[in-house]
């Protein structure tokens, strides 16, 4: 530790021109660049500005916003997608913002959405 203190003390006595020459000499001797530590020191301030990446959503809820004019077709699709009986499927089709499927994968959610929309329902993935 005493040796490091001695080196720091000696380096403190260098002029700016001598320090620049020292940097060049060390870069040549060790085959490194002194630019990287400067970029790292400025990095945290620059990194704080951009927003963090948002994780891609993996689970979706299939929600019926409106049944549309073909209520019977929508009820049939609801029964295909779920294990609900006729009365439960009818109630789901008639209720606003009903979740047909909860926490399903992207492919399953998109498939269910396509089937419900083909039957005339207005559907969103939440």
Which characteristics define this entry?
126 residues; alpha+beta; 2 domains; 6 helices
Sum this structure up briefly:
The protein has 126 residues and is of the alpha+beta class. It has helices at 2-12, 16-30, 35-48, 71-81, 86-94, 106-118; strands spanning 60-66, 98-104, 122-125.
Provide an overview of this structure.
With 126 residues, the chain is of the alpha+beta class. It folds into two domains: 2-48, no CATH class; 60-125, Ribosomal Protein L30, Chain: A (2-Layer Sandwich), CATH 3.30.1390.10. 58% of the residues lie in helices and 14% in strands. A three-stranded antiparallel β-sheet has the order 2-1-3, covered by helices on one side.
Q: How is the main sheet built?
A: 3 strands, antiparallel
Q: What fraction strand?
A: 5-15%
Order of helices and strands: HHHEHHEHE
Number of domains: 2
Write down how many β-strands occur, each being a DSSP E stretch of 2 or more residues. Answer: 3
- Second CATH tier, the architecture of the largest domain: 2-Layer Sandwich
- Spatial extent as radius of gyration: 33 Å
Question: Mind sketching the topology for me?
Answer:
Blueprint: H1 2-12, H2 16-30, H3 35-48, E1 60-66, H4 71-81, H5 86-94, E2 98-104, H6 106-118, E3 122-125
Antiparallel strand pairs: 1-2, 1-3
Helix pairs in contact: 4-5, 4-6
